[in-house]
Amino acid sequence: MRLHLLALLAKEPAHGYELKQALEQTFGSAYPSPNIGQIYVTLGRLEKDGLVRAVDVEQSNRPNKKVYYCTAKGRDVLTLWADEPTEGPRVRDEFFMKLVLAPLTGIADRMALINRQRRHYLSLMGDLNDLMARTPPEDRVALLLIEGAMLHLQADLDWLERCQEDLA
Amino acid sequence: MSDPALKAVNLVKVYSGGAVPVHAVRGVDLQVEPGEFIAVMGPSGSGKSTLVHMLGGLDTRTSGEIWIDGTRADTLSESAWALLRRKKIGFVFQFFNLVASMTVADNVELPALLGGASPREARERSRHLLGALNLADRADAPPARLSGGEQQRVALARALANKPSVLLADEPTGNLDSRNTRDVLRLLGEVHRDGQTIVMVTHDARVAGLADRVVALHDGEVVDDGRITRRRTGTAGAVIDLR
Lengths: 168, 243
Known about the structure:
The complex is a heterodimer of chains A (168) and B (243).
Chain A: H1 2-11, H2 16-27, H3 36-48, E1 52-59, E2 62-70, H4 72-83, H5 94-105, H6 110-134, H7 140-167
Antiparallel strand pairs in A: 1-2
Chain B: E1 6-15, E2 22-32, E3 37-41, H1 48-55, E4 63-68, E5 71-72, H2 78-88, E6 89-92, H3 104-114, H4 119-132, H5 148-160, E7 166-170, H6 178-193, E8 197-201, H7 205-208, E9 213-218, E10 221-227, H8 236-239
Parallel strand pairs in B: 3-8, 3-9, 6-7, 7-8
Antiparallel strand pairs in B: 1-2, 1-4, 4-5, 9-10
């Protein structure tokens, strides 16, 4: 969440609660509703690292609020973040390790592992289908995220089929 | 209890034309209850298409039994089976086989008329299906004027036109881009909710995710047959890990 908050602060200075709202507005239902405590903890760390600076702003009849700014150093870190390629999901995942190792020990057979995993993927896909149907068309960020998750699942299923062809 | 919509007993297909006989389907038992949506999956060459073609009477079985709505179909004469198929089965393929000399609407109405619907019922059904698939404005065009994706949706509408007991489908979204696939998904979900029985060969995980049950084939045999469970989840953020 560090860099997500930093990016929002590079757009405009904000206090903690405004950041929570900005995350919700930007991502719609695509972002797990951010916890305000976690936002403050993250802001504290960013401040300690010199990536943001906090300024107390006086408020009439309320305690001062802390408004956070992105520093020049923060901006450099963001630029680096945006410029470097992003790692995709790991392919040598826990299921793959099971598929290769479990049959060697005699505790499971490959076809059973593949079948169980296929049902699991399809059940996840069913959830995503429901979610897609329930997401309003104007929530475009969320829809794109759902579509991305579906494409990843499709790849997982295709790969499962390849494992079935070659290993089972 | 009502009869299964579709039943296969120890169904076998051996292609013996070539130098070595090919055992495409090796003794499949399958029972499909009315209203079920089954996704048939498996690697290419596992016998999925052959199985579904046999169930629809488009390919002859080598041995075994096929029952449709309580009627034994595999022992019927070719013409009797064709009659049964017209009433009870809708079929949609990866390649759509539309009648080139008829309009889109007529293509869709034809099976309903052959199945015994009145011209008015057939027209209404066709209008509803074409509307649901975003094809209302193409109704009077000949199929050749349509894109591949549009033709595929017409083929689906046609397969559903006679409200078949069973919709059989072989890779029906194989040619579609993602927006067209979404229309097809929506219609399949809708007809399934209305009680349409569906048996569908597919590699498309989104389509398979609509199914209640998955049947997986490997080397002509059923290696898995089970329900796909749902959990009812919250928002996108809760389902999709945003690490």
